[in-house]
Design a protein that fits this description.
The model has no long low-confidence stretch (mean pLDDT 96). The chain is an alpha+beta fold and 358 residues long. The radius of gyration is 21 Å and the shape is globular. The chain has three domains: 178 residues, Ribosomal Protein S5, domain 2 (2-Layer Sandwich); 90 residues, Alpha-Beta Plaits, CATH 3.30.70; 64 residues, Alpha-Beta Plaits (2-Layer Sandwich). Strands 1, 2, 3, 4, 5, 6 and 7 form a seven-stranded mixed beta sheet that branches. A four-stranded antiparallel beta sheet has the order 9-10-8-11. A hairpin with a 4-residue loop joins strand 3 and strand 4. It has ten helices and eleven strands. It binds adenosine-5'-diphosphate (ADP) and magnesium ion. The site of magnesium ion (MG) has 4 residues, from helix 2.
Length: 358
């Protein structure tokens, strides 16, 4: 029997920068997906999720997408990509156990994929590096599951390091780990209100980013500085300008944030998180009243260093950087004040910045 583990992740700074070929800072958290499995010495693949109480059997020699049990495709997709890369893989069993909520924006999907890759490595004696693993898992999600995600989730899960942020350059597809000052924790708070994404918004905002880049004569917003954006403002429709202002600002905040972390300035880093949220709210317009309320309450609590919406927005969760010794009281106060103000029950996850897949 072999065991593998891969964690979920949270975005710290760099909102909506990925498809603009920009930069992002994230962290792996101390929750993730554990797989236990062994070789079947045949082409039989046997998968079981303890989380869902479901099981799937499939022939690895004739891999097809699983329609009844969509979750199996995250594992089968990784097997499929390994096969397409000519790696000698075949039948195996895998039992899934997880303490990551599904679909909560903590990237249980990437954790499941990366954990699968780690298990396959062990069972079939492979020797892939972490970047190869992250890229293959992304490809599995893109091609086999059919979700058009970037590299962030898989790279964070693969490269996570205790006490370190992960810096991903989405254009170069390079990853660096940046030491994070001691004495802090992350509080991830799901707002408990339904997603306010009507469907078209995400894509509409994306197109507005591309429009801004094109009108500024840039390949992507990655190549635009704040000064260039201001100089070209007159040529941009208002919404394209606002979206670009957010993305360009986020790229700059990521680089500033790395500088602050290198100097141990965690307070300054927290301020950038507040600035990031303010920019989401005003310029990218991917916040919601509930997320704004969570950030405003957090801002008023002693021991909170920074807070912002994390991930796509339009609902979902905030990430709050907090002083370790006040963690429990901050978490309790945030949830109870939020309930008083909105009537919504937030779900708070108090997390450490943790190691990646193993
Ligand atoms: P997120 O990655 O933010 O959690 P996604 O929608 O991308 O949300 O991925 C969630 C999907 O991943 C689930 O619907 C399920 O198919 C799969 N998944 C994640 N964790 C598990 C698990 N423990 N058991 C089975 N499937 C899982
Ligand atoms: Mg996911």
């Amino acid at each position: 029997m072999q065991t593998s583990y891969a964690p979920g992740r949270v975005e710290l700074l760099g909102n909506h920068t990925d498809y603009n070929e920009g930069v992002v800072l994230s962290a792996a958290i101390d929750r993730g997906v554990t797989l236990t499995g062994e070789l079947t010495h045949s082409s039989r693949v046997s998968l079981r999720s303890s989380t869902l109480g479901e099981a799937v059997e499939i022939d690895s020699a004739a891999l097809v997408r699983c329609k009844e049990n969509e979750w199996a495709n995250y594992l089968l997709g990784v097997l499929d990509v390994f096969k397409k890369n000519g790696l000698p893989v075949g039948g195996f069993t895998a039992q899934i156990q997880s303490d990551l909520p599904l679909g909560a924006g903590l990237s249980s999907s990437a954790a499941l994929e990366v954990s699968t890759a780690m298990l396959l490595q062990k069972l079939f004696g492979l020797n892939l590096d972490r970047l190869q693993i992250a890229k293959m898992c992304r490809r599995a999600e893109n091609e086999f599951v059919g979700v058009n995600c970037g590299l962030l989730d898989q790279a964070s899960s693969a490269f996570g390091k205790k006490g370190h942020a992960i810096f991903l350059d989405c254009r170069a597809e390079t990853v660096e780990t940046i030491p994070f000052p001691d004495g802090v924790k992350l509080l991830i708070t799901q707002c408990g209100a339904p997603h306010r994404l009507s469907g078209g918004e995400y894509n509409e905002h994306r197109l507005q980013c591309f429009d801004a880049a094109a009108r500024l004569g840039a390949k992507a917003l990655r190549d635009v500085t704040s000064a260039q954006l201001e100089a070209g403002k007159a040529n941009l429709p208002e919404l394209s300008y606002k979206r670009a202002l957010h993305v360009v600002g986020e790229n700059e905040r990521v680089l500033q944030g790395i500088g602050l972390l290198k100097n141990g300035n965690v307070k300054g880093f927290g301020q950038l998180m507040f600035a990031s949220h303010e920019s989401s709210r005003r310029h990218f317009e991917n916040s919601t009243p509930e997320l704004d309320t969570l950030v405003e309450i957090a801002r008023g609590l002693p021991g909170v260093l920074g807070s912002r919406l994390a991930g796509g927005g339009f609902g979902g969760a905030t990430v709050t950087l907090i002083e370790r010794d006040k963690a429990a009281s901050i978490s309790d106060a945030l949830v109870s004040k939020y309930y008083d103000q909105t009537g919504h029950l937030a779900v708070a996850h108090l997390c450490e910045i943790a190691d990646g897949a193993r």
